[in-house]
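Notebook entry, structure prediction.
Reason for the run: the old model in the group folder had no record of what sequence produced it. Starting over properly, with the input documented here first.
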Amino acid sequence: MVLKANIMQEVWVNCNYGLEEYYQISNLGRVKTLPRIVNRGEGKQLMPEKILKTRIDKNGYEFVGLYVGKKKQIFKKIHNLVAELFIPNPEKKKCVNHKDGVKGNNRLDNLEWVTHKENTLHAVKNNLMKPPKGESHPFSVLKAEDVLLIRKLYPFLNQVELSKKFNVSRKCVGNVLNNKSWKHV
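New structure, fully documented this time:
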């Protein structure tokens, strides 16, 4: 059996952000400096091109600091640089998704533009994150103690009265009582 290798030809393009003459980004997710002449003491020195080392941020994404001289210009995540330079974004989506879920795989064929919602759904679907539940959900109005109190008061108050008391819809109260939401409480 012959295995077909997925070999992508490396293509380099000039960086954006006004740094076009200093840096290039490749479709394989690498960043390099371009050859340049720098002042060293009383003379000038030719600096050859060089592949930059990346660092990992607190969320596990590779990033690089791009400079002109000693002045710090920007810190950019590698996957964003690759997507901005190689992937058209006619819908103006804000996020770049790693299709395989591996944050260090910044190859062009592994990246795509997505909305925040599409990015979150991809992460949940691929077990890269757990969906927020209970109080940690950004749209949660109730707290765990409210849910316990609703369940305790239900024999004495109906769903409409409970919804008014806790400032939520009757459907929300029904979902709490039927364990469709807040199952873990």
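Summary: The chain has a mean pLDDT of 90.
The old model has been moved to the deprecated folder.
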